[in-house]
Amino acid sequence: MADEKSKGGNKNAAETVVIKKYANRRLYNTRTSAYVTLEDLATMVREGVDFVVYDAKTNDDLTRQILTQIIFEEESRGEALLPVQFLRQLIGFYGGQMQGVLPSYLEMSLANFGRQQEQFASQLSRAFGTGAGASLMEDAARANIAMFERAMQMFPGFGYARAEPTEARVEPAPSAETAEKTPDALDEMRRQMDEMRRQIDSLAGAKPK
């Protein structure tokens, strides 16, 4: 399917492949005039081919549904990328106040990780066993935390100040009104971010000098 790759990274309407889904659940590639499977679509994603999926009868956009099915197929065959705890937390965000924030954060984080992927591969291979690899992962974790904080600050009421060291932090007693207004999910996320920072700081302190 190399001939279907988007050239120069441009993904405009002319380059987007249209897939039709029929009532018998078969998927039809209108560009190649051939039926395809979920595995074929997964290969297209990996090759950078942009596509949309429409219901052949109603013309409803089924792209999100099909991509989710691809993830399910990949996870069910043992190539798991999504930790169970992550899936539990993700489900918990549906219908909550964080639902409007999380998609943008995940999209930015994955885009950032994708840009760093090749750099990780080369640098980690050179730094294997030297302690520098831990430094790279530490930097990436810090970058993702900072990105999340910037995303949170874009929404009124969700600004999150970086936690100070335990010995220097003075926490005022929250009022009853403030406690009632703070979403449980947001409190849990803040707690986890603090824990991530403590682990990163511990990793940094344990690196060989």
From TrEMBL:
InterPro entries: PHA_DNA-bd_N, PHA_reg_PhaR, PHB_accumulat. Residues 82-120 form the PHB accumulation regulatory domain. It comes from the Bacteria. Residues 165-186 are annotated as: Disordered. One of its GO terms (biological process) is regulation of DNA-templated transcription. It comes from Candidatus Brevundimonas colombiensis. Pfam families: PHB_acc, PHB_acc_N. This is Polyhydroxyalkanoate synthesis repressor PhaR. Residues 18-78 form the PHA accumulation regulator DNA-binding N-terminal domain.
